[in-house]
């Protein structure tokens, strides 16, 4: 059961809690002024993704060159999803946080990571009808005991006041670990791995898909394919971290106008 405490009582409780358990940096464990923060040293090592960036995949651009721009990769082959946003590049500090969260049972990191994701993906959350986490296969869920994407999705849905559909999508085929595979192999590996279990939760709706890390985009592409086939009108993607190749020069899109979201 969750107690709903008045604000002043919660604030008093937090002050007391901070005295007994001083807040610590999420990454290195050094004391910080407030809970759910990174210390200045760790903060400085995180490469937050900010505009200018590709309007579709969110990849950061090296320089300011206007707002209606796509990166070369998206111009060459437009992803199935509409927009993808991420808080930070998958660098050393971020990798440490993600691995601690995912494999180190540090589930208490979920609210702090979700809060950062909410800043990076505010327009996507505002325009979403339903929040759907990328599911784990039940064997992996059994081993790990929790789905890290579902924890993030739950926190985002709660704070963003959006419906959450954790059972809408299922991973029907266990895929081998994607860590060492090349891009093309990853797309082949996950194709057919997902199915929509509750089409009524996504049909006619704008879906915001949540995961911890975006690497090649193969997983979210496979999810997006089945969500769109089940009638989702749009699929946006929000992840905590994104593997970004070296900063790219923006390419001016001429073929079709691109919707610009306000950051
Ligand atoms: Zn730190
Ligand atoms: Zn792009």
Task: Provide a quick synopsis of the model.
The chain is of the alpha/beta class. Helices cover 35% and strands 14% of the residues.
General description of the model:
The protein has helices spanning 7-20, 40-45, 72-76, 92-103, 110-120, 122-126, 138-144, 148-160, 183-190, 218-229; strands at residues 69-70, 84-89, 130-133, 169-171, 194-196, 206-214, 234-242, 251-252. It has 263 residues and is an alpha/beta fold. It folds into two domains: 9-45, no CATH class; 49-176 and 184-251, Rossmann fold (3-Layer(aba) Sandwich), CATH 3.40.50.2020. It is globular, with a radius of gyration of 19 Å. The relative contact order is 0.17. Residues 253-263 have low confidence and may be disordered. One zinc ion (ZN) binds at residues 25, 27-28, 30, 38-39, 41-42.
Structural class: alpha/beta
Instruction: Please report the first level of CATH classification, the CATH class of the largest domain.
Output: Alpha Beta
How many domains in all? Answer: 2
Distance between the termini: 36 Å
Strand order across the biggest sheet? 2-7-6-3
Question: Average pLDDT across residues?
Answer: 86
Q: How would a crystallographer describe the biggest sheet?
A: 4 strands, parallel
* Parts with pLDDT < 50 across at least 5 consecutive residues: 253-263
Overall, the morphology is globular
Small molecules bound: zinc ion
CATH architectural arrangement of the largest domain: 3-Layer(aba) Sandwich
Give me the strand/helix succession: HHEHEHHHEHHEHEEHEE
Percentage of residues in helical conformation: 25-40%
Assign the CATH topology of the largest domain. Rossmann fold
Please tally the helical runs, counting DSSP H or I stretches of 4 or more residues: 10
Sheet-strand content, in percent, reads 5-15%
């Amino acid at each position: 059961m969750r107690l709903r405490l008045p604000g002043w009582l919660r604030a008093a409780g937090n002050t007391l809690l901070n005295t007994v358990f001083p807040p610590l940096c999420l990454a290195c464990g050094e004391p910080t002024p407030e809970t759910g923060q990174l210390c200045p040293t760790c903060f400085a090592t995180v490469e937050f993704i900010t505009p200018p960036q590709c309007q579709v995949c969110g990849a950061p651009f090296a320089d300011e060159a206007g707002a209606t721009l796509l990166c070369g990769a998206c111009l060459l082959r437009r992803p199935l999803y509409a927009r993808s946003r991420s808080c930070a590049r998958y660098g050393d500090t971020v990798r440490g946080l993600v691995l601690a969260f995912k494999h180190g049972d540090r589930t208490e990191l979920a609210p702090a990571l979700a809060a950062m994701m909410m800043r990076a993906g505010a327009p996507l959350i505002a325009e979403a009808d339903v929040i759907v986490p990328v599911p784990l296969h039940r064997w992996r869920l059994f081993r790990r005991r929790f789905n890290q994407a579902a924890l993030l999705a739950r926190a985002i849905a709660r704070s963003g006041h959006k419906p959450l559909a954790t059972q809408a999508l299922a991973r029907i085929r266990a895929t081998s670990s994607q860590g060492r595979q090349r891009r093309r192999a990853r797309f082949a590996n996950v194709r057919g791995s997902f199915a929509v279990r509750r089409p009524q939760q996504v049909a006619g709706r704008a879906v915001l898909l949540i995961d911890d890390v975006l690497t090649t985009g193969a997983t979210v592409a496979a999810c997006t394919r089945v969500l769109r086939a089940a009638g989702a009108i749009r699929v946006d993607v929000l992840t905590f971290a994104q593997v970004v190749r070296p900063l790219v020069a923006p390419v001016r899109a001429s073929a079709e106008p691109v919707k610009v979201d306000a950051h």
